[in-house]
């Protein structure tokens, strides 16, 4: 069984506590610099401080698979 819960895009205590209870976290990211920065920060904090080690990434607001891969690669280079 799976449960998907949409949390705020900002790092807050409630988002961190809730996300840290999951075995894996789905991060939705766009090609916007703020989105990429927020996604990186969330992954970093959850991994370093809460030992979350399984992340899935969805590229949102892209028109083609290639655009989605570009967004993913930008995030991957940062992390």
Report what the structure shows.
With 79 residues, this protein is of the alpha+beta class. The chain is built from three helices and two strands; from the N terminus they run H-E-H-E-H. It has a two-stranded parallel sheet with strand order 1-2. Helix 2 (33-50) links the parallel strand 1 and strand 2. Helix 2 (33-50) crosses helix 3 (65-78).
Provide key terms for this protein:
79 residues
Taking pLDDT < 50 over at least 5 consecutive residues as the criterion, the unreliable ranges are none
Radius of gyration: 12 Å
Helical content stands at 40-55%
Computed structural class: alpha+beta
Q: What is the N-to-C order of secondary-structure elements (H for helix, E for strand)?
A: HEHEH
For the report, how would you describe the main beta sheet? 2 strands, parallel
Major beta sheet, strand line-up: 1-2
Mean pLDDT: 90
């Amino acid at each position: 069984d799976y449960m998907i819960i949409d949390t705020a895009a900002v790092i807050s205590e409630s988002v961190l506590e809730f996300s840290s209870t999951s075995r894996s976290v789905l991060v939705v990211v766009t090609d916007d610099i703020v989105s990429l920065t927020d996604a990186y920060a969330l992954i970093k904090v959850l991994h370093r401080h809460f030992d979350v080690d399984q992340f899935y990434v969805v590229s949102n607001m892209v028109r083609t698979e290639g655009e989605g891969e570009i967004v993913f690669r930008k995030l991957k280079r940062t992390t």
